[in-house]
Structures are given as structure tokens and as C-alpha cells.
Amino acid sequence: MNYIKIVGGPLQTNTYLIYEGEIGIIVDPGAYFDRIDDAIKRIGVNRILYIIATHGHFDHIFYANKLSKNFNVPLMIHELDVNLTRRYSDLAESMYCEVFIPPENIKPISSECAIKLPWDVDMNIIHTPGHTMGSICIAIGNILLTGDTLFKNSIGRVDFDESSEDDMWKSLRKLIELDGDYIVLPGHGEITTMKRELKENPYLKGLWDL
Ligand SMILES: [Zn+2]
Ligand SMILES: [Zn+2]
Description:
Layout: E1 2-8, E2 13-20, E3 23-27, H1 33-43, E4 47-52, H2 58-61, H3 64-71, E5 75-78, H4 84-87, H5 89-96, E6 106-109, E7 113-115, E8 123-127, E9 136-140, E10 143-147, E11 150-151, E12 154-155, H6 165-176, E13 183-186, E14 192-193, H7 194-200, H8 202-209
Parallel strand pairs: 3-4, 4-5, 5-6, 10-13
Antiparallel strand pairs: 1-2, 2-3, 7-8, 8-9, 9-10, 11-12, 13-14
The chain binds zinc ion (2 copies).
């Protein structure tokens, strides 16, 4: 299993393509469409199994509708964030300077679960509310996609109406308690590892000591 990071959009969102052979999964399709499309073609992926969003903010789902139509798969997103995909439509359009069509074909995720992949690893959905109520982290093998929950040296904002600071601390604890090391693929910024963040991230250090 391999991954590539595609950066783009007005908020420099990281879109990830996780793939093996000709089969791939798209996570957080908010980087510019052409960049995502080019990457898929360049790598030779011709079947997208899942399009999945770590949460419902527009910069993580902007191209979900177009990609979901192209590949004939729904957008998977936690049920608590489904409404959020429409809430910031005007802001989304003005920031991307493009017409925004919220995802029409949605498959809500209602609980933590393991989704079978045709590879030797499963895709594990971990509910990590805080940045938004329906934020999730996705573990596939030794990679952990953390969306706007955990960044290199930082964590996601908790000052939105849809945020909860209390939940954020609980969710970070959940991530800390995951077994083994993970390569952390965040929704913005540089790729890091869980081991590094446990040592260097000022927000995690406090939790670790408790
Ligand atoms: Zn966000
Ligand atoms: Zn974001």
C-alpha cells in the first residue's frame, strides 16, 4: 500500500490518494481537482473504491461531488458532519472562486468500524470529535489520516460552532492510546509520525503526562 499527498485549495488542504496497483482511495478531496485527477492518472489508478472525508469542512470535501460522479462511488463521511458539508457553501465558493456543489451521494458512517480492503490491511474508522462533531481519523496499516484533529506540532481549531474543546482532548487521548507507531497524514501541513508528535507536539505532551 502506498500513498501520495496532493496539496491545494485556498486553505492548502492535503488530499491523499492511498493506492495499491490500480485501486485507490481518495481522502479529503479539497485540493484542486486537476491536481487530484492528474495524480490518479499519473499513478495509473483506474478504480476508486472509496472517497472519504475526515470531516465536513468545505476545504476537505470541495471536489467530492465531482469525483464521486466520475468514479461512481459515494462520499463516506461521519453522519454528524453530513449537514456541515452544506453549511459553508457561500464561503466555499468565494474562496475557491468556483461553483460549489455539495456532495449529493453520501454514505454516512454511523459508528467506529473496520472496512475491508482488497489489500492485506483493513481501513479502521476512529471517531475523534472536537474540531467538528463528526471528525474521524482513519487508520490503514501503519498510516493514520488525522484530518484537522492532529497536525505536526499542533492540533485543529476548536473555536467553531461545530467544535468542542472537551471532545478534542478526549479524542487526542484516544489517538495517544493507539498501539504502535503510525505515520501521521494530517489534513494540512507536513507528514509526521505519532512517535514524533508524542515527543514534540506541545498539545500532546500535556496529555501524555496525565
Ligand atoms: Zn476543518
Ligand atoms: Zn481543514
